[in-house]
């Protein structure tokens, strides 16, 4: 008689431990890879970051010393290798904006190297891995001054009995000499290219809303925010530089509102520094600006004048449109060629007295317009070199720093 065993029989477990061991080894190997290979990659990247920072600062310093792009690039390559032996500058870099010869700008350096991996190949990965990093350095003026975010048209300035000889260089009126001038602005976007005065973006290269001293075809112009604009009006801008006799392109700012003009009106009786825009001479062929007329054209290869988004001339009349005949707008960047030191006499709205203060050339009032504003100023000086502005600031020192 056979006995029935109700307990289930256990299957044979021999050999089951081998897969467990294999899986454990894979997991352990993965941990080794993470600990050693990934750790080595992170260490290499940290070293490469330091090399890129040094390269960007060196190139920026070289540009600030006016040594030229070739010297700046050689400096970047030399410092990159000095800080990371196997580092190389990626093709197409350094990138200089607007260029290394500018009074201020930024340089982007991207470096690349390879890091060997010891254990990753056992898991089917490559035996080396690329490491890439990037740094951005800037150079420019360190001074600050009473610069306000409003440009004045050079053409209108020349009509104020000041004269080309005055605009040619630094000028301070003699004792008892008083020169007054008015500037009319219609704050509609379609009129910005023809304004006698208008807002511009004073953000320097280190800002995410870079507007001052950009390339002619710089395609990323954006307005400054209201707080920045009001701060410039109340406290002045800092870090500005001028490329004169070459153009200094500055982005148009369309953020003008009544509070902005009212803030400027608080400084009636106060001297401020206004950037001066060369709008380009209407109808000139070849295209040139007022600045070109007073410079030796044989030694001045810089055609002046405000430009559209693509960097093409947009002289008055700068007409918005879709590329049709005469539609060269809208205006995107002004061509700043100097600074006028002006005492603010009045800031009036175009339907609240400004239409009379900024009368037409024949003396009749302008059409009343709530979008328009009139600026009346007393002329106290003009400068094409901000080092000559006697505000107690040192504009000759070049600051160099990293921004990324």
Describe this protein's structure.
The strands form two sheets. Strands 5, 6, 7, 8, 9, 10, 11 and 12 form an eight-stranded mixed sheet that branches. This protein is α+β, with helices and mostly antiparallel strands. The protein is 25% helix and 23% strand. A hairpin with a 7-residue loop joins strand 2 and strand 3. It is elongated, with a radius of gyration of 31 Å. The relative contact order is 0.14. Helix 1 (17-64) packs antiparallel against helix 2 (69-83). It folds into two domains: 17-141, no CATH class; 150-388, no CATH class.
The share of residues in helices is: 10-25%
State Rg.
31 Å
Helix-strand sequence: HHEEEEEHHEEEHEHEHEHEE
Name the poorly predicted regions: 390-397
How does the major sheet shape up? 8 strands, mixed
Instruction: Work out the number of β strands.
Output: 13
Secondary-structure content class? alpha+beta
Number of helices: 8
Mean pLDDT: 79
Q: What is the terminal separation in angstroms?
A: 89 Å
Shape, principal axes of CA atoms: elongated
Features:
5-stranded antiparallel β-sheet; single chain; 404 residues; 2 domains; 8-stranded mixed β-sheet; alpha+beta
């Amino acid at each position: 008689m056979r006995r029935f065993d109700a307990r289930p029989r256990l299957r044979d477990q021999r050999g089951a431990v081998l897969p467990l061991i294999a899986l454990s080894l894979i997991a352990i190997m993965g941990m080794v890879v993470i600990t050693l290979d990934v750790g080595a990659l992170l260490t290499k990247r940290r070293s490469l970051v330091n090399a890129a920072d040094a390269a960007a600062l060196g190139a920026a310093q070289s540009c600030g010393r006016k040594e030229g792009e070739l010297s700046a690039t050689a400096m970047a390559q030399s410092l990159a290798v000095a800080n990371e032996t196997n580092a190389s500058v990626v093709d197409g870099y350094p990138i200089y904006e607007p260029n290394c010869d500018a009074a201020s700008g930024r340089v982007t350096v991207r470096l690349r190297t390879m890091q060997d991996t010891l254990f990753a190949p056992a898991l089917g990965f490559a035996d080396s891995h690329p490491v890439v990093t990037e740094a951005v350095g800037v150079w420019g003026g360190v001074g600050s001054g009473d610069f306000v975010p409003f440009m004045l048209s050079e053409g209108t300035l020349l009509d104020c009995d000041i004269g080309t000889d005055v605009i040619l260089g630094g000028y301070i009126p003699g004792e008892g000499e008083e020169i007054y001038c008015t500037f009319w602005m219609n704050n509609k976007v379609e009129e910005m290219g023809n304004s006698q005065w208008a807002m511009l973006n004073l953000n320097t290269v280190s800002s995410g809303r870079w507007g001052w001293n950009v390339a002619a075809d710089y395609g990323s112009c954006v307005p400054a925010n209201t707080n920045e604009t009001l701060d410039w009006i109340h406290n002045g801008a800092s870090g500005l530089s001028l490329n004169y006799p070459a153009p200094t392109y500055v982005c148009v700012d369309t953020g003008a509102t009544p509070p902005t003009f009212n803030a400027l009106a608080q400084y009636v009786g106060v001297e401020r520094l206004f950037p001066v825009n060369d709008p380009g001479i209407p109808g000139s062929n070849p295209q040139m600006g007022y600045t070109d007329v007073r410079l030796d054209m044989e030694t001045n290869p810089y055609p002046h004048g405000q430009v559209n988004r693509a960097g093409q001339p947009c002289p008055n009349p700068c007409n918005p449109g879709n590329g049709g005949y005469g539609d060269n707008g809208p205006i995107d960047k002004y061509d700043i060629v100097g600074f006028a030191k002006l005492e603010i006499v009045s800031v009036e709205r175009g339907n609240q007295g400004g239409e009379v203060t900024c009368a037409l050339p024949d003396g009749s009032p302008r059409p009343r317009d709530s979008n328009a504003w009139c600026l009346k100023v007393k002329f106290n000086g003009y400068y094409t070199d901000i080092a000559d502005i006697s505000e107690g600031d040192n504009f000759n020192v070049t600051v160099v720093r990293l921004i990324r």
